């Protein structure tokens, strides 16, 4: 999978720990200019009332 070098890319996981590692690696090793880690992951995202789309919902 190719990630754009010229656009922001957000990383998210359940709690934010794995996405923090992934975003740090991408920032330091790939030359990407802007990476975003969603702090707290999908757990925090959902608790703030933001919508989540599951794989099953995407198929509809």
UniProtKB/TrEMBL annotation:
Pfam families according to UniProt: Rhodanese
The Rhodanese domain, residue ranges: 3-54
InterPro entries: Rhodanese-like_dom, Rhodanese-like_dom_sf
UniProt name for this protein: Rhodanese domain-containing protein
The organism of origin for this protein: bioreactor metagenome
């Amino acid at each position: 999978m190719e990630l754009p070098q010229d656009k922001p890319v957000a990383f998210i996981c359940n709690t934010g720990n794995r996405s923090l590692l992934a975003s740090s690696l991408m920032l330091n090793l790939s030359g990407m200019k802007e990476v975003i880690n969603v702090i707290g992951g999908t757990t925090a995202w959902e608790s703030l009332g933001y919508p989540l789309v599951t794989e099953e919902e995407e198929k509809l």
